[in-house]
Amino acid sequence: MKKVNDILEEAIYGKPEIRPQERKLFLSTILERIHVALTVKQVVSGNEYTEVAAAMNKQKDVHLYINGHLSYQFYSRYTKLAAKANVPFTIVTPTDSTPIGLVVANASHAIQPPTASVFIEDSLYEKDMAPFNQD
C-alpha cells in the first residue's frame, strides 16, 4: 500500500521517470527495448540500412522513434518502410544532444534475450559516437 507522502509527491510532481538519461539518449525509449539504432550520420548518409526494415517486418509490437532535429528528406524512407510494415512512428525532438537518429524498439516490453549490440558499427557510427565516448 502506498504511503500518503508518496501519493502526495506523485500528485504534485507526477510519476517518477525510469532511467531519464537513457530515455534522453535513445529518443524516449530505453536500451533493453531496442532492436536496432542508427546514429544521425547513418540516417543522413542516404544509405538504407536493411537491418531497420528487417526489424520492423520481423518483430511484433515495435515502434519507430525518429530524431526530430533531422530533415524529413533524410528519414522519409524509414517512415515509408514503417507504413508498409504497419509500424507506428514518433518524431521525438530531444532537448539534450544525442548522436541517435533513429530507433526501432519494442513498444511496451524488454527484448528477451537482450540484443548484444543495437548499433550498426560502421565508419559513420564511429564518427557520431566519438565525441560521446571521450572520458
Automatic annotation (TrEMBL):
<protein>
    <submittedName>
        <fullName>YueI family protein</fullName>
    </submittedName>
</protein>
<dbReference type="InterPro" id="IPR012543">
    <property type="entry name" value="DUF1694"/>
</dbReference>
<dbReference type="InterPro" id="IPR029064">
    <property type="entry name" value="Ribosomal_eL30-like_sf"/>
</dbReference>
<dbReference type="Pfam" id="PF07997">
    <property type="entry name" value="DUF1694"/>
</dbReference>
